[in-house]
């Protein structure tokens, strides 16, 4: 017997070893790591084969830990975090529970959020959902919750899902709505227009007081007529009231009477009061006008006045007309 050889075992390798094995000696083969035969790691039968060991099987001692799955491969295995989780290191795989650092991925802030622009991303454990934003609803066929949700604006006004007071009308807006005073109405004290809690009351004739310290019977008569228009004012008849008011102002400018005897400074004060007061009154009354462009004429020929109802600002062309009225007042009352 040669030295270096164990008794009864040849140093020659068996040449019949199957795939995934190496020879143990002349009469036996050894399965490679990760493989096994029905007779064990070492076998002597020519009929044996080495099969992959499923390290991820139910009887395996391998544990990947929480929020992780075991992935079997030929001759080996690896662990990965389940969908919606990732390793703190950013790596994609690990070998055992001691290396497990799987943590929830916040898809909503990580740049992985594929939600449609009409939807809001809601992070949940191991995933996310796309929910419609307030004032939006899923389009037909698109459920509210999964990651493919697509939304459209809710018309709260037509669906009667509003808190608008009965004194207002509902105006739909993208993702919301607002409550606007009805034509001929104005916000009650303490309320603002175009808000969700807007509450309105029927519009009253604006206050227009004479300039202080001016003694003039003609001016007093003018303001008596203005107050008469105010007492009989009805928002539904705002167009007629505006026409009457313009006529009263025009008559005053055409027949100033004792206004011509006032001092130049008092005359200027009267003209300024007329200009500012008429602008304020017309600005308020125009909110009660019907839709469309209206033309008002002064019979004495001082000019035409146009109003744009439902406009938020005093119409610029009406402002220009009032400037022309002021010029007329300066020429008629101030003799300039």
Automatic annotation (TrEMBL):
Pfam families (alphabetical): EGF_CA
GO cellular component, one term: plasma membrane
Signal peptide coordinates: none
Keyword Repeat set for record: yes
EGF-like domain: residues covered: 52-91, 104-142, 153-192
SMART domains: EGF, EGF_CA
Principal location: membrane
Gene3D superfamilies in the record: Laminin
GO biological process per UniProt: cell adhesion
Membrane topology qualifier: Multi-pass membrane protein
A single MF term (Gene Ontology): G protein-coupled receptor activity
Cellular localization per UniProt: Cell membrane
Keywords tagged on the record: Calcium, Cell adhesion, Cell membrane, Disulfide bond, EGF-like domain, Glycoprotein, Membrane, Receptor, Repeat, Signal, Transmembrane, Transmembrane helix
InterPro entries (alphabetical): EGF, EGF-like_Ca-bd_dom, EGF-type_Asp/Asn_hydroxyl_site, EGF_Ca-bd_CS, GPCR_2_ADGRE2_ADGRE5, Growth_fac_rcpt_cys_sf, Nephronectin_domain, NOTCH1_EGF-like
Name of the protein: Adhesion G protein-coupled receptor E2 isoform X7
């Amino acid at each position: 017997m040669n030295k270096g050889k164990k008794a009864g075992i040849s140093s020659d390798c068996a040449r019949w070893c199957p795939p995934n094995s190496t020879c143990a000696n002349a009469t036996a083969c050894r399965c490679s790591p990760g493989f096994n035969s029905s007779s064990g790691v070492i076998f002597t039968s020519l009929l044996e084969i080495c099969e992959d060991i499923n390290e991820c099987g139910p009887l395996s001692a391998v544990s990947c830990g929480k929020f992780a799955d075991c992935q079997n491969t030929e001759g080996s295995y690896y662990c990965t975090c389940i969908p919606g989780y990732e390793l703190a290191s950013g790596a994609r795989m690990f070998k055992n529970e001691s290396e497990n650092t799987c943590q929830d991925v916040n898809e909503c802030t990580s740049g992985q959020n594929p939600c449609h622009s009409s939807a809001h991303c809601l992070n949940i454990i191991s995933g996310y959902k796309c929910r419609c934003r307030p004032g939006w609803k899923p389009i037909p066929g698109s459920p509210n919750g999964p990651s493919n949700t697509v939304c459209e604006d809710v018309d709260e006004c037509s669906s009667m899902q509003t808190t608008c007071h009965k004194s207002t009308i509902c105006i739909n807006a993208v993702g919301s709505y607002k409550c606007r005073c009805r034509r001929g109405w104005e916000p009650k004290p303490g309320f603002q227009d175009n808000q969700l809690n807007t509450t309105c009351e029927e519009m009253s004739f604006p206050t227009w007081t004479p300039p202080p310290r001016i003694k003039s019977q003609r001016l007093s008569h003018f303001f008596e007529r203005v107050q008469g228009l105010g007492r009989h004012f009805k928002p539904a008849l705002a167009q007629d009231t505006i026409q009457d008011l313009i006529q009263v102002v025009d008559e005053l400018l055409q027949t100033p009477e004792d206004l011509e005897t006032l001092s130049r400074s008092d005359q200027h004060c009267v003209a300024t009061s007329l200009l500012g007061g008429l602008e304020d009154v017309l600005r308020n009354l125009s909110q009660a006008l019907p839709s469309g462009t209206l033309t008002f004429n002064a019979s004495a020929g001082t000019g035409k006045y146009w109003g744009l109802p439902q406009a938020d600002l005093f119409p610029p062309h009406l402002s220009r007309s009032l400037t022309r009225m002021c010029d007329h007042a300066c020429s008629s009352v101030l003799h300039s």
